[in-house]
Design goal:
heterodimer; A: alpha+beta; 35% helix; globular; B: mainly alpha
């Protein structure tokens, strides 16, 4: 018998198809079937209105507790019409609870409020929202989040996440979507990722697909799919690492990045990182090359080259003096994304973005 | 349930029995049986949702799903060939999606905020969501002819034969669009 998993799920399952089934199945409709009134005559428009009314009344009845708030919202909405901001904006849809855009509460599911430049989208502890990022992607905004739309142009989209969690899926040229946080700026390089920002400005970025650039004050971290990176208000982005790396490796890395260590403590932490690094952790060691002292760098380089064969055209001396083309060649050696894309963004866009932010 | 099942017992082929049963449901719904229409809703909600999701924002698809059935109900009597209910409903769904973009949508409007409780099984706040959104955006970036079968297949969980049966399209057409769409999707994902 001929098997064909895509067509009828017969035969051996294709892992990529299964992944798509699993990832996309979460968006399956969950709307319950309505109760259709029995007394509606065929073609009777009044009857249709009756059904629509009954339908909406059922939805209304399910949330009568929100009646007072809804009335308040209606008044605010009326007052808001005269002073609504204009210009380009992004569609915001409520997923749960009552997220707000500016002073307004986003209403029922499917009611598209607009988030304009300068406006703030807020979700309280019981609300979630989705945001259509122009025509390039979508954000899920988790409860307890606050973000502001800073810019939306044909080639540049930028928001600031002050607190909370967003899940971003962007389908646009690298560098087009930028997210500012209190402690680092995330630059989409063609990907899907989750970004969390805490009240103290610290944050976490986890990449699911593609890769993300995370930078602050000249400190760059590149986070490929399956990896994550912590950031702190004072220190900026830490050294990224794969989520499946060893616990000892991650703990020692955290100590190096964010803890006040004496000489012995720092040495021990670095030794642990190097000792516990696996082949795929080479990209973490690559980041360390520029973050350790001149005295520590040879140890990092030697461990890196023990794990990964050096790319053609690079030398030990060159890497130890942080020769830019050699450092970039090393990154490309990991095949996690072309660093030329980042360099392009860095040269063309970063100064402009920095200027816009100030 | 007030479905007229007369004559079904003589049908031995399960596929034919399903078709006959469905026709009976449609005829019952045309005769005013709302529970029959409710059963049709249960059977076709995934198809309608998938068609909408291939064309409009995800949040809007949920609301439009109800609208499609509300539009279909009073027009049901005009459907002469009951075997074509699926294709007929699919056409209403596609038209409703087109209307969505033709209508002037409110921008700063606050509509009634009657928050519904969250639905079990709905999108969660886990990072799993971002991966799903990524794939959804990838599918939605494909030409329309490929979007619909891929969303019905991967989001709604329908098989190719089910898609053909529900939408009233020929197996060959669905198969070609499913395969070409999947090929295009693979190429896009490989570039990322």
């Amino acid at each position: 018998m001929k098997s064909d998993y895509l067509w009828d799920r017969s035969g051996e399952a294709d892992p990529q198809l299964q992944k798509l089934e699993q990832a996309l199945g979460q968006f399956r409709s969950q709307v319950e079937a309505p109760q259709f009134p029995m007394d509606v005559e065929k073609g009777n428009q009044c009857g249709l209105k009756g059904i629509a009314l009954v339908w909406r009344m059922r939805r209304l009845a399910a949330s009568m507790v929100f009646g007072a708030a809804a009335a308040t919202v209606a008044v605010v909405a009326f007052l808001h019409v005269a002073k609504s901001p204009t210009g380009p904006g992004w569609d915001v849809a409520r997923l749960e609870g009552a997220p707000s855009v500016g002073e307004l509460t986003v209403a029922k599911t499917g009611g598209m409020a607009k988030l304009h430049v300068g406006e703030v989208l807020t979700t309280n502890a019981s609300s979630r929202a989705s945001v259509q990022v122009a025509n390039i992607g979508e954000l899920y905004v988790d409860p307890g989040s606050r973000l502001r739309l800073l810019e939306t142009g044909s080639n540049r989209k930028r928001i600031a996440v002050e607190i909370g969690t967003i899940h971003a899926a962007i389908w646009a040229p690298p560098g087009e979507f930028v997210v500012d946080t209190p402690s680092a700026t995330a630059v989409d390089l063609g990907c899907a990722y989750t970004l969390q920002v805490a009240a103290d400005g610290s944050g976490t970025l986890q990449t699911k697909m593609g890769w993300v650039g995370f930078h602050q004050n000249g400190r760059d971290s590149f986070i490929p799919a399956g990896a994550m990176c912590l950031t702190r208000a004072k220190e900026g982005p830490g050294t990224p690492f794969f989520e499946d790396s060893l616990e000892e490796f991650r703990s020692a890395l955290h100590a190096l990045d964010f803890e006040e260590l004496n000489v012995a403590g720092r040495s021990e932490a670095l030794q642990t990182v190097l000792r516990k690094a696996r082949v795929r952790d080479g990209f973490t060691l690559w980041h360390l090359l520029a973050r350790v002292s001149d005295e520590e760098r040879p140890m990092v380089y030697d461990r890196l080259t023990a794990l990964v064969r050096p790319p053609a055209g690079t030398t030990r001396e060159g890497v130890l003096r942080l020769d830019a083309p050699m450092i970039d060649a090393w990154w490309n050696r990991f095949a996690l994304g072309d660093i030329g894309v980042w360099r392009f963004w860095e040269q063309r866009e970063a100064p402009r973005t920095k200027k816009a932010a100030s | 349930m007030q479905i007229r099942e007369a004559g079904l017992t003589s049908v031995s082929d399960p596929a034919q029995a399903d078709t006959a049963s469905e026709q009976a449901l449609v005829r019952s719904a045309q005769a005013g049986d709302r529970s029959a229409f409710g059963t049709l809703y249960q059977r076709y909600a995934r198809m309608v949702h998938g068609i909408l999701l291939a064309r409009v924002p995800r949040a809007a698809a949920e609301d439009l799903l109800q609208d499609v059935f509300l539009q279909a109900l009073p027009r049901l009597s005009s459907l002469r060939d009951t075997t074509r209910f699926g294709g007929w409903l699919a056409a209403i769904a596609r038209n409703r999606a087109s209307d969505y973009y033709r209508q002037t949508r409110p921008t700063e409007e606050i509509e009634e905020n009657f928050a519904e409780t969250s639905k079990d099984g709905g999108p969660t706040s886990s990072s799993h969501v971002s991966e799903g959104l990524f794939f959804l955006e990838a599918v939605r970036s494909l030409p329309e002819a490929y979007r619909e079968p891929l969303i019905l297949r991967f989001v709604e969980g329908m098989t190719g034969p089910e898609i053909a049966e529900r939408t009233g399209l020929k197996h060959g057409s669905v198969r070609v669009n499913l395969y070409r769409g999947m090929q295009m999707l693979r190429e896009k994902l490989e570039k990322k």
